[in-house]
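In this supplementary section we document a worked example of the pipeline. Step one takes a protein sequence of length 443 as its only input; no multiple sequence alignment statistics are reported here. Step two produces a three-dimensional model, which step three serialises into structure tokens for compact storage. The input and output of this example are shown verbatim.
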Amino acid sequence: MLKTFHIGGIHPPENKLSAGQKITQLNLPKQVIIPLAQHIGAPASVTVRKGDEVKVGTLLAKANGYVSANIHSSVSGKINKVDSAFDTSGYSHTAIYIDVEGDVWEDYIDRSDTLIKDKLMTPQQIIDKIADAGIVGLGGAAFPTHVKLYPPPECWATVLIINAAECEPYLTSDHALMMEKGEEIMSGINLLMSATRVGEALIGIENNKQDAIRHMQQLAKEYRGIKVVPLKTKYPQGGEKQLIEALIHRQVKSGELPISVGAVVQNVGTAFAVYEAVMKRKPLIERVVTVTGKDVARPSNFLVRIGTPISQLIEAAGGLPANTGKIVSGGPMMGRGLTGTEIPVVKGTSGVLLLPEKDAKRKPARDCIRCAKCIDVCPMGINPTALMTATEFSNWEAAEQNHITDCIECGSCAYICPANRPLTDYLRMGKRKVMGIIKSRKA
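The serialised model returned by step three reads:
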């Protein structure tokens, strides 16, 4: 029987329209816009100024604090300006504009295709290289990877979990990466095992990716301690706590981190980025992005330089369908609607979804009928409808007592609700408010 988590979950239509599409290198844009806040934590501090010449791999902004990440140039050219720009959050933040001139790389980057499996390094040396390269979680959260590799003094890691579930409908970037860069991913996993000092790594892949399961299982035979585990196709299997329960049958308590049960979780794309950072000295300057939708002419998986306008990805996939009702950064369940097509690709951009108007249009919300379907599907075991009510009436004490901060914003409750209530929107808003209250109380 295939492994999975046991609380809640749904199975929306998969719509993996770009599955089987090879990764295609997207052409360079005329200008890139590189935000300084591409990660959880403090925005990076600018180290360049207008008029500076940069190459691919030049440091543009340095990590500003413990939870932060370096940012490097994804192109060669001249700094046009440091100004504000809208990003995938929908807000305007400071960004660096670079006019592209050629494609000249820093000499320190190894651009060869030669696979490097082994290199003698201490855990600290590996972590330092990851931090220098600005690696963050590529599953969407964009948490600085080097921070995850420093567990609190009272905790220690016993297992590395690689998230290759890719449970979000439509997205196939991780699938494509496993099929084309499996050897490099295995080497990256090996490096992460060394950095965390664990002897076991489990790669969780949902069973709707049979070719990836077979391919990675074959590669894993050459690596001690790495095992590929097929998982039942179920959303949101890619959530950290859900994946941990599915793979090692441990439950992370409310308010705790995965390391509390001995687990360190990294996305499969992050493992590839770690390989490139450590073995090739290549900073995080590009990533694989799925561009898809039911009416998209050519659903694709593109290798894209960070800072490329999303309009260029859409054009490469055949252009914007006339009936497009919404452009989403990410997948349909947890993605964010975009305000325009000139918003740049950032480190956490896993996909661009073009939803037809009929799928994008919200149905009128009605009164809750107390069916409890939202409670049944919630993977965190909380009560979404009660928490929406608490948020509506600003009852923050009730929201906190009923564990609104445990919400992972997966959207399962809103998806299943027969009354079409915007449960996830309210829970997201209430969660931010309660977290702010808790932070102020601690301060």
